[in-house]
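Pipeline run #58 for the internal structure catalog. This entry was flagged by the ingest filter as a single-chain record with no existing model, so it goes straight to prediction. Upstream metadata was stripped on purpose; only the residue string is passed forward. Reviewer on rotation: M.T. Logging verbosity set to normal.
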Amino acid sequence: QVQLVESGGGLVQTGGSLRLSCAASGSIFSIKTMAWYRQAPGKQRELVARITSAGRTNYADSVKGRFTISRDNTKNTVYLQMNSLKPEDTAAYYCNAVVTLRTWYGEGPGADYWGQGTQVTVSS
């Protein structure tokens, strides 16, 4: 199976920066897309940013120009650099990856995997 472990959350003041990391490990053949989602209390989980294996990115309108997603394929790790943070960015941030498994016959089926979440709190 696959495990996603996030790190880098915390408490920051408005206008500050944080960098989230998410490392994937396990029986990985390939990682297709990697993404960050967030969920604030009482709200639905929403996509923040996504990056493909080729490096194509897309962002939620609310974070464009402030957040940058990147990945290191040699480390199976995705990053989210968050600048100019606002109180409305406060949420639990979750890492997501679409992964195909390594099997005895080669590339196995793909599936969605999620991290446990890391809290980001922006104080006003």
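catalog note: The longest strand covers residues 91-103.
catalog note: The CA atoms of residues 22 and 64 lie 20 Å apart.
status: ready for reviewer M.T.
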